[in-house]
Amino acid sequence: MKKYPNSEEEWNMSKVRTIFLIVLSLCMLSLMTTSAHAATVSRYAWTDEIVDSWVLNQANGEWLVASGTARYSLQSVTDSAGGSHWMFRGEHNLRGVGQITGVKYQVISTFTQHFNTKYGSAYEWTFVNTSPLISQGQESNMIFTIRNHVTINANGEMTAFFSEIEIVFRG
User: Fold this and answer.
1) Is 27 a member of any domain?
2) Per residue in 76-122, pLDDT tens?
3) What pLDDT is attached to residue 82?
4) Considering the entire predicted model, what is its pTM?
5) Nearest-angstrom CA–CA distance, 21 and 15
6) Is residue 3 included in any domain, yes or no?
């Protein structure tokens, strides 16, 4: 039996934490292996097929199973002053069916994540994810947006932080 997340927020926050830890690990690896005086740029892009991803329509409480394509890109820049700058982007284009109503949905989500740091403990991280859930019927459409930002100064003190979640229903 599959275990489902209790809410869309838990599902998305779990993804946010996982992505943040991956990017943070890559940044730390970059800091350890890159010269502070050489500017470098690295770019990676890949596509994945997503099969049977569970999505919750919070407008009616219905779970849907969605499948489709995900495209990701990662850019890493190490500047001549020793700063590391990462940008991670993703797009999901999924189609699914409501498990109760049988209504067809399209889920087109996008996210962008930026991570900036210089040698030491100071860093800045920003994450924005927008996920519209569009029904092909009488069910309400939903737009789920999450925005996160953290700034840590050179003393390891948090100087800025916000986390916003917005859910809008239409239709």
Assistant:
1) yes
2) 999 888 889 999 999 999 999 999 999 999 999 999 999 999 877 79
3) 83
4) 0.72
5) 10
6) no
Instruction: Sort residue 156 into left (φ over 0), alpha (ψ -120 to 50) or beta.
Output: left
The string of pLDDT tens digits covering residues 113-169 is: 999 998 777 999 999 999 999 999 888 899 999 999 999 998 889 999 999 999 999
**Would you list the DSSP string of the chain?**
-PPPPSSHHHHHHHHHHHHHHHHHHHHHHHHHHS-TT--EEEEEEEEEEEEEEEEEETTTTEEEEEEEEEEEEEEEEE-TTSEEEEEEEEEEEEEEEETTT--EEEEEEEEEEEEEEESSS-EEEEEEEEEEEEESSSSPEEEEEEEEEEEE-TTS-EEEEEEEEEEEEE-
Q: Sheet containing 104-118: give its strands across.
A: 40-57, 62-78, 83-98, 104-118, 123-135, 141-152, 158-170
Rounded average pLDDT over 18-44:
62
Range of the domain at 119: 8-170
Q: How many domains does the chain have?
A: 1
